[in-house]
Write a structure and sequence with these properties.
single chain; mainly alpha; two-stranded antiparallel ribbon; 67% helix; 1% strand; globular
Length: 447
């Protein structure tokens, strides 16, 4: 079969999985404390035409403890503790829901199921769009079957699937979308035809800025274009040819300007709500850094308390694959970015992610793990690809078993995973199956 036909067939399989998952699994809700904090600014902008979040605070606090929205201790204005990026990405979905509600004469309050469904679907769709872009990228460097198995297993055997469909009103699916586009753009800057194009650096800057105002700690990935730019200057110095110095300086300055443009909405919101351009500290964000936790990066990976590899072994295989990348510079840079993210997360007093399926702070890095899974398959050769993919299937089934028990609260959502308890729960397979069927039935049968 021609490569393009095989690629198309694999994309069709992925699309079927996505749309079936959307129909039967997508949870159209604003989840918990964090979901309200991310959604409130978008709802306020579209429905109220302002960024005064007091009425959103009053609405969401009716049925839950709410810390993500609260008054500024200095200005008294209500604000969401998260940056504005997720709300900006959600605006098309909220505007669409608002327009449909007005056109049909339905309540255009921002609190109906139509708004929630479109916001959650939009998050899941953006993440799936990024998966397809990543698949196309992988098919340019690996055989289509390698690319498919990397995408399929990296999607279904990590917490990406969970945060696409069960908690899509959090930031993680949006983070995956932005981070995937950013990593692909950086690859084109370093190894592709975009390396000397000013527009490519502008795109990189815009994505970098959006990543920062979506999840502040993911600003660590700015290291990648910084290193790429530094390499360009070092090559120029070694060659002694400075004819392109002006071009490089202008391109990189444009990237900095693009970052500033992307970050500007968040700074504007800060001024509006806090009367200052930047806010930080426990008065504005929950949690703090602890300097004595320098070794907690290991706990972030291996602890039963939402340790990334402990809960999601597929990530370990992805990291091994990254270590096998043939270009030393690429290998070192990507692993260094991951290490820095692990280190920063370890210093945070919420290093375990609090209520989290696996470790939710790393959903944005799943594209790197998928890239590693493709490299791992290629490196082991055809002889070992079949047993390796058999292991992938086992890890997919394990991940779905964890999701079922997590969703049914048979294992704790905010504490360590006891493997003995997890295994013992399989004695209640009928209960698990019944719970899953009831959940699916609730998605397709009108209440």
């Amino acid at each position: 079969m021609p490569k393009w036909k095989l690629t198309l067939r694999y994309e069709q399989i992925l699309s079927v999985v996505f749309f079936l998952s959307t129909i039967f699994l997508l949870m159209p809700w604003i989840h918990g404390n964090d979901g309200a904090g991310y959604y409130a600014p978008a709802r306020s902008l579209v429905v109220d035409g302002d960024l005064n979040l007091e009425n959103e605070f009053q609405f969401f606090r009716q049925d839950r403890e709410l810390a993500a929205i609260r008054p500024d201790p200095n200005t008294g204005k209500y604000y969401a503790q998260y940056p504005i990026g997720v709300s900006l990405i959600w605006l098309p979905a909220v505007y669409l829901a608002h327009g449909i509600s007005l056109a049909l004469g339905q309540p255009a309050t921002g609190y109906t199921s139509l708004y929630y469904w479109l916001v959650c679907f939009w998050s899941a769709f953006l993440a799936f769009f990024a998966l397809l872009r990543l698949f196309r990228f992988l098919t340019q460097h690996f055989a289509p079957d390698i690319a498919f198995w990397a995408i399929f297993s990296g999607w279904l055997a990590t917490n990406l699937f969970y945060y696409m469909f069960f908690e899509a009103s959090l930031s993680h699916a949006v983070s995956f979308f932005l981070m995937t586009l950013f990593f692909l753009q950086c690859y084109r800057l370093r190894y592709g035809e975009d390396s000397d194009r000013k527009m490519a650096w502008i795109k990189t800057g815009l994505l970098a800025g959006l990543i920062f105002i979506t999840r502040l700690q993911d600003g660590i990935v700015w290291l990648i274009p910084a290193v790429i730019a530094l390499e360009a200057y070092l090559r120029m110095i070694r060659s002694g040819d400075f004819s392109r110095l002006g071009h490089y300086l202008s391109a990189h300055l444009l990237m900095v300007v693009a970052i500033a443009v992307a970050v500007a909405p968040d700074l504007f919101v800060n001024i509006l709500q806090h009367d200052k351009i930047w806010v930080s500290g426990p008065g504005y964000y929950h949690g703090s850094f602890r300097e004595d936790q320098w070794w907690y990066a290991l706990k972030v990976l291996f602890s039963p308390h939402h340790g990334l590899i402990f809960w999601t072994p597929m990530v370990g295989l992805g990291i091994i694959g990254l270590g096998l990348l043939p270009r030393p510079g690429q290998r070192i840079l990507l692993l260094s970015v991951l290490f820095l993210q692990l280190l920063v997360t370890g210093f945070w007093n919420f290093w375990h992610g609090a209520q989290s399926f696996s470790h939710r702070f790393f959903v944005g890095y799943v594209p790197l793990f998928i890239y590693g899974l493709a490299q791992l398959q290629y490196s082991v050769g055809k002889k070992w690809q079949t047993p390796l993919r058999g292991l992938f299937v086992i890890l997919i089934l394990l991940n779905f078993a964890l999701m079922a028990q997590y969703g049914l609260r048979m294992i704790p959502s905010e504490g360590p995973l006891d493997l003995r308890e997890f295994v013992a729960n399989f004695k209640e397979v009928p209960k698990i199956v019944e719970g899953v069927i009831d959940f699916i039935r609730s998605k397709v049968v009108p209440q």
